[in-house]
Amino acid sequence: MKTRTRLTILYTLITATILLAFAVVIYYTAKENREKEFYTLLKKEAITKANLFLNASVEKQTLQDIYHNNRKILNEVEVAIYDTAFTLLYHDAVDIDFVKETKQMIDEINQKGEINFYQEDWQVIGLRYKFQGKNFIVTATAIDQYGYNKLDSLFKTIVIVFIISILVIYIAGRFFSKKAFQPVKEMTDKAANISATNLDLRLPSNGNKDELSELANTFNEMLNRLENSFDAQKHFVSNISHELRTPLAAIITELELSANKEKNAEEYKTAINNALNDAKKLARLSNSLLDLAKASYDPAEISFKPIRIDEILLDARQQVQKVNPDYKIDIHFENDFENDNQISVNGNEYLLKVAFVNLFENGCKFSDNKQSNVSLFFENEKIKLRFTDKGIGISEDDLKNIFVPFYRGDNKNFTDGNGIGLSLTQKIIALHKGIISVSSKRNEGTTFFVELLHI
């Protein structure tokens, strides 16, 4: 069932329930009022007849004749008058005697002063009437045919109006739900036309602050992220293809030349070393790509635990110098720490080591003296690291893009690389809720600043 239909039915049911409750209140209020008004009429008739009989001394026969004559035209009130000893003094129609008074009834009326009750559809009232110091009991009964007819007419009117109202409400609900969901339908039709080939399309928004505008804006923001992601993915794939194609082409060329042309042992050795170096480049690129993918994971999927930053720095230095023995790395503590928590962070040991290795290698390979220095100090709840070198530096234009994947500036002519290291480092630091920044001057050196929250 569509939401539009479901809302229409729900709206109709709610309105129908309110109308039904309103109709029930009206009907039962009318019923109660009719009953009270008729009891009041019976009481007036009883007192009037008692006054005529006891006070005005009108003959019984005269009163009875009036009763029988009126009875032919309308529902006349039948009145009976007793004394407290249950002696019948007057009755409009003894032959009819609809109430059938009993001694117990007369005593109850005398005791309570007034009672009223139903006898089938007839209403009966009994009251104590005082005349010349003596108490008399007067009963009066009649059927309110006119009142019942009005109630019946009211009931039929309520039923008809209720049914018509439900139909009108349902039709109106369908109409207004269609109008209300028209923007949703337009957004659905527009969204159905959006695919990977036209991610530049956006949903229409009326500029208001209603829920539909918020939905459209949220969806458009998601499309922006998707479009950026697709563009980044295309750029990423393009760069990977380029980075892979160069060493692969070199390997293939070396092997083809070696296979097609006779060479001496030294030439074969040179060809093998060239192919081996290109293979190592591919291996480094693959490892960098795997690390980049891991750094892009959801933080909830990466294991974090308390680790000491000084130990990670020492491991990173050892890893770098194991591959490049001529690299010199100095680690300096600018202030003392009071406990292990002050030098520990909640992080992933492998990823942080990758980040520090990248920073060490960048400092060493772009410096003539092959040296990188890191200073470690503590400030409030932060651990701050400063990686410095005396290398070739980075131009102002390149500084804006050094964290862009696969971007290589002027330094590409200085040494080999694939442009992943710094981008990977930034992702890792961000994954640990840290901050990395850089300052550099051409031919003077570069400094990377890293801030991490300690435990």
- Topology as a string of helices (H) and strands (E): HHEEHEEEHHHEHEEHEEHHEE
- Quote the distance from N terminus to C terminus: 53 Å
Integer count of domains? 3
CATH superfamily of the largest domain: Histidine kinase-like ATPase, C-terminal domain
Protein structure class: alpha+beta
The largest pleated sheet is described as: 5 strands, antiparallel
Quickly give the CATH architecture of the largest domain.
Answer: 2-Layer Sandwich
Query: Tally of extended strands?
Result: 12
Proportion of residues in β-strands? 15-25%
Fraction of helical residues? 55-70%
What's the gyration radius in Å?
A: 51 Å
Ranges where pLDDT stays below 50 over 5 or more residues in a row are: none
**CATH topology annotation of the largest domain:** Heat Shock Protein 90
- Give me the side-by-side strand order of the main sheet: 2-1-5-4-3
Question: What's the mean pLDDT score?
Answer: 83
Shape descriptor? rod-shaped
Number of separate helices: 10
CATH level-1 class of the largest domain: Alpha Beta
